[in-house]
Automatic annotation (TrEMBL):
InterPro entries found in the cross-reference section: Metal_Hydrolase, Pept_M19
Protein name: Peptidase M19
PROSITE patterns with a match to the protein in the record: RENAL_DIPEPTIDASE_2
GO BP terms, alphabetized: proteolysis
Species: Rhodoferax koreensis
Listed PANTHER family: DIPEPTIDASE, MICROSOMAL DIPEPTIDASE
Length: 325
């Protein structure tokens, strides 16, 4: 069951803290977003922190059934739309919270994690990060892809090394997505994806969701027009059925300390040598309200209303309908 129209935000970041405010999620709902995937942990976050975040976010969702619905199916999203709620799923950015155990994938799925990628910028025992030495998907990584497919979770390749992402897409028996990634051809940055990766993603039946982060759009004050331009590039390369939106807005809440415990070095995860010429916390984002402006911006780059609806959520809904179970 796929709703006729659905606005799908493929990746957003609240503070990784159990008491994080959901006010930004309300802003997304008011801007017309029907489903949002919220990050609950990255490779640098220990399992204890990830589990506390999941518990806290689930409690907030359960405490406000008039506003939020934890979604595991397209039927849940349709019901949320009908009830004026925003549907929510969780995502993991990296395989380290899996503790090298493929069985952890199904456990996270049962808690609401609906998509995952395997490496956050740096290499681990499963996969390569996009800012590290290329090796390719490891044998454990092959087993992890199989576990993700079996759990009905969306296999994501954002933040993943180029060779490794191609290995993942060749291994997966389900469509693969980039939940927040932009064309390398438009902006030269290690986090952006090559035409080869975009074509491989489309060949799986997957979707490349355009990020709204300044570094990856090549504009310190990114606009909805920048997002539309990147979306149009992907559509021209592989077709409009393989384009989505993942603005990747980090909603910082200064009163909450969500840093990983212990010896945490941001310069390792976001290296200057990889193009982060200032701290990642200085990134700027395409505003939440861009969701209301996207239809006109996409029309301005040559898409009609039906094309815009696919980009804004129809494509991701199609893939989720196939993958989730």
């Amino acid at each position: 069951m796929i709703p006729a129209r659905v606005n799908w935000e493929s990746h957003a970041c609240l503070p990784l803290h159990p008491q994080a405010s959901f006010a930004p999620i309300d802003r997304l709902r008011e801007a017309g977003v029907n489903y949002v995937s919220i990050n609950v942990g990255m490779d640098m976050n220990p399992v204890a922190q990830v589990m506390a975040v999941i518990a806290g976010f689930r409690a907030t969702i359960a405490a406000h059934p008039d506003r939020y619905r934890l979604a595991g199916s397209m039927a849940d999203i349709a019901q949320a739309q009908a009830g004026g709620q925003i549907a929510i799923g969780f995502d993991l950015e990296g395989a380290m919270p899996l503790l090298e155990q493929p069985d952890m994938v199904a456990l996270y799925a049962s808690l609401g994690v609906r998509q995952i990628h395997f490496a956050y910028n740096r290499n681990n025992s499963v996969a390569d990060g996009c800012h590290d030495v290329e090796r390719g998907l490891t044998p454990l990584g092959v087993r992890m892809v199989q576990a993700v497919n079996a759990a009905g979770m969306l296999m994501d390749c954002s933040h993943t090394g180029r060779r490794c992402s191609l290995d993942i897409m060749a291994t997966s028996n389900q469509p693969v997505i980039f939940s927040h990634a932009n064309p390398l051809a438009l902006v030269e940055h290690g986090r952006n994806v090559s035409d080869e990766q975009i074509r491989a993603c489309a060949a799986t039946g997957g979707v490349v969701c355009v990020s709204g982060v300044s570094f990856f759009l090549g504009n310190d004050a990114p606009t909805v027009q920048d997002v539309a331009r990147h979306a149009a590039y992907v559509a021209d390369l592989v077709g409009v059925r393989h384009v989505g939106i993942g603005l990747d807005i980090s909603f910082h809440q200064g009163e909450l300390d969500d840093r990983p415990p212990g010896d945490y070095d941001p310069a390792y995860w976001w290296p200057r040598s990889a193009g982060y010429d200032r701290a990642i916390m200085k990134a700027t984002y395409t505003p939440v309200e861009s969701w209301r402006l996207l239809p006109d911006a996409l029309r301005a780059v040559g898409m009609d209303g039906d094309d815009a609806a696919l980009v804004m959520g129809g494509n991701m809904a199609r893939v989720a309908q196939q993958v989730w179970r």
